[in-house]
Amino acid sequence: MFRLHVFALAAASVIAIAFCPSASAEKKYGPGVTDTEIKIGNIAPYSGPASAFSILGKVQDAYFKKINSEGGINGRKINFISYDDAYSPPKTVEQARKLVESDEVLLIFSAIGTPGNAAIQKYMNSKKVPQLFVASGASRWNDPKAFPWTMGWIGTFETEARIYGQYLLTEAPASKIAVLYQNDDFGKDYLKGLKAGLQGRSALIVAEESYETSEPTIDSHIVKLKASGADVFLDFTSPKFAAQAIKKMGELGWRPLHFLSGTSVSIANVIKPAGFENAQNIISSVYLKDPSATQWADDAGVESFNQFLSGYFPEGRGEILAALGYTMAQTLEEVLRRCGDDLTRENVMAQAANLRAFAPSMLQPGVAINTSATDFSPIEQYRLTRFKGDTWQLFGDVLNAETGTR
Q: What InterPro entries does the annotation carry (predicted)?
């Protein structure tokens, strides 16, 4: 009888252990994670020449406040810590070190800008801290072999420009092209992509001008490019300088076929300050729904986005950069939810590198996020868009960013 009793107790213990959550699904936490909190770091230019992009950090902060009000992610609230770097790489380095070594965040998410992210890339990888969903389209973020802790999000500048080059070969093969680009990885990637898209016909480029972000104005560059006799203008500039370029072109009466960087399509921060009359027929590319466009007035995804803005960030209404920040935050939310109770830095990167056909509601129809262990470029599809009246209007089909084809 005694032996039977002991056997029964042992069997009961085995069954209890088998069904105990702590035994079957052990929690694993990296820095910045507890049962109730996940610390996420962010760096944005709240001041300086690229301050227009700070709306990304602001809308992401608002989005995580919304998530927290709904109970957080798997029961954990997001502690979103965002610092200003004024778009200055030395300051970016300082803020990254503070986030990693002092605040002890799990990861740095959506840090803004090519120069600053380039300055911290080696540091982040040496520390094995995710530099996740970088808010820059430089091609260097898609190098999982050399930098396994760095992943981009935005479609690459190089492949966007390749589409423009291919479009010109088809629609304006005898054009004379002038190019204005920022003198860093941001602008140089665009220039590289354009030349690749022209497929050996780079002689069509009759003038190139680069500018520094420290310059107060780029008016003199526009004057030089107009004097080249170009009838096509590739405008690879960030918002502040894009607005200057469009306005100056209007003053000079120079109206070439104008292509504008997809980073500078903001109506509020670029087109309106430059003057709607000066922006007519500009061509750019998008992968997000423009919340200001009438064609999305009845779209469920845009409606949900606007409801979020009404409750948490009303100043972002109608702003495509707000839609970008919102969609990036949704992607991080998806990654963290998939992590479950394994919130280690290693698992964060593993989940981020395993997104398949993930389609947040503000992406264009037919566009989806896909990643793998060998492909750290989530966005690889685009739609061309043209500015008409007071809004952007889509034309053509979804294009593959790598090939320029459907």
A: Leu-bd, Peripla_BP_I
Residue 20 resides in a domain: no
**Hey, what are 71's tokens?**
């109970």
Radius of gyration of the chain (CA): 24
Helix (H) or strand (E) holding 210: strand 205-211
Same domain (yes/no): 134, 204 = no
H-helix or E-strand spanning residue 384: strand 381-388
DSSP-derived letter for residue 144 is: T
Phi, psi torsion values for 161, nearest 5 degrees: -65, -30
For residue 128, what are its two tokens? Answer: 């094995």
| 21 is a domain residue | no
Assess whether pLDDT exceeds 60 at residue 293: yes
Distance, in Å, from the CA atom of 308 to the CA atom of 329, rounded to the nearest integer, reads 13
Summarize the confidence of residues 146-172 as an average pLDDT: 94
Which residue, among 251, 252, 257, has the nearest Cα to 280 in the 3D structure? 257
The pTM (predicted TM-score) of the whole model is 0.81
Same domain, 258 and 305: no
Question: pLDDT tens digit string along 171-208?
Answer: 999 999 999 999 988 899 999 999 999 999 999 999 99
- Cα end-to-end distance, the chain, whole Å: 76
* H and E: helices and strands count for the chain: 13, 14
The residue segments making up the domain with residue 113 are: 29-155+296-375
Q: Where does the pLDDT of residue 286 fall: very low under 50, low under 70, confident under 90, or very high at 90 and above?
A: very high
Round to whole Å and give the CA distance between 22 and 159.
Answer: 47
Domain tally for the chain?
Answer: 2
Q: Give the ranges where 212-344 is alpha helix by DSSP (H).
A: 219-227, 239-252, 272-274, 300-312, 320-339
Query: Which CATH number characterizes residue 302's domain?
Result: 3.40.50.2300
Mean pLDDT, all residues of the chain: 92
Cβ atoms 256, 230 nearer than 8 A:
yes
Distance CA 156, CA 158 (A): 5
Is residue 268 within 8 Å of residue 322, measured between CB atoms? no
pLDDT in tens, 219-261: 999 999 999 999 999 999 999 999 999 999 999 999 999 999 9
